[in-house]
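quick one before i forget lol
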Amino acid sequence: MDKQKDLKDAYDAHGIRLDVYLEDEHYTKYDVEVQARLYRKLEKRIRYYTSGIDRHSLEMNTDYEELCPTAL
């Protein structure tokens, strides 16, 4: 379990900070976000966070079939 895990692809890229990031015994990855206010465009934010988790889950030359399930 990581608290406030930062994922950033490049120094000038828009990174993400996951509030709580966990992985279970079946390699499912979980992102738990604590919201103090209602965000506009929340669906797009979730999509961006999930894609960040996916990008950091595969090693080079790994098949996309190897992506683990994610839960938000």
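fyi The beta strands are 2-7, 16-23, 29-32, 70-71.
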